[in-house]
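User: Can you help me understand a structure? I only have the sequence.
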Amino acid sequence: MTGKPDFSKHMVNLASQRLGAKVQEVSDDFFAEAKRMLQDSEPTFKPDLYDEHGKWMDGWESRRRREPGHDYAVVQLGTRGIVHGLDIDTRHFTGNYPPQASVEGMDCGSVTNPVSGDWEELLPISELGSDRQHFFSTKYCSPLTHVRLNIFPDGGIARLRVYGEPHPDWSGIDLSQIMEVSSIELGGRIAGYNDAHYGMPWVILTSGRGKNMGDGWETRRRREPGHDWILVRLGATAEIEKVEVDTAHFKGNYPDRCSLQASMAGNETDEELAAKAENWAELLSPQKLSMDQQHFFQKHQLQDLGPVNCVRLNIFPDGGISRLRIFGRPQF
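Assistant: Let's start by predicting it. Here is the structure, written out as tokens:
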């Protein structure tokens, strides 16, 4: 697959360190620790940097294999989810990249449960090249908590990204409480946007406040009429009781105002939702925003639209936000 596919643009990277993904088992990482390939940053190359094992590489690198077999790394995903695509990235690995790779998955019910069960094929053995990203679509439609990356026979991977839809196990969750139904941990995800020139849109649904201006969603400077927007599928249907819009670290580039629309969607695709969202009912009328600040909107400021499962945040006219949080009581 050439170019960046749609799944990499707004699907959640389930193997992101910021979500808590980690390497649980690795066959060998003599030259470079396997956990490096889960970093959210883009891989870098430092030509003059060496450590006690040799050339420092920004990724996972096993030693040269001198016996039959292949190397592998088992990754606990940051949250359980349905995988739609993979990025196996060999950037900066030239004479030391693996010529082939495959990926398997397993659902252990919870990411914290021990790895136990049978591995299911997500990606058959596929060819890799040097110094580039490799995007693969997947067709396995059941939730997963772990993936196993196999490389043949050995070598280095700069980054592994596993794009998909969060799919939590609600059986052990107390549904009587007000919850952040937009959060990735509870199944929230980005379903579309009109522009995302800077940052990664899905991080606005993660926990904590932004670490810097790059830790959020930011649009380009608008030079034409209109405004920018981003669309969120909630993890559960809920009557919305509170909203937070955080502009942390956005100072000369925060939006002047924001508003919210919401709807109860059916089986529409993300593209179909995006086409309809402009006409959804208003949940929150336009509100003034300030730089580098958390903005809280309480129930009395919100329109009573009843149960909804999708929200569109509008920003006027453009700019960046760090986090968006939508709170309500889940309904099933």
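Now, to help you interpret it: The longest strand covers residues 71-89. The mean pLDDT is 96. Let me know which part you'd like to focus on.
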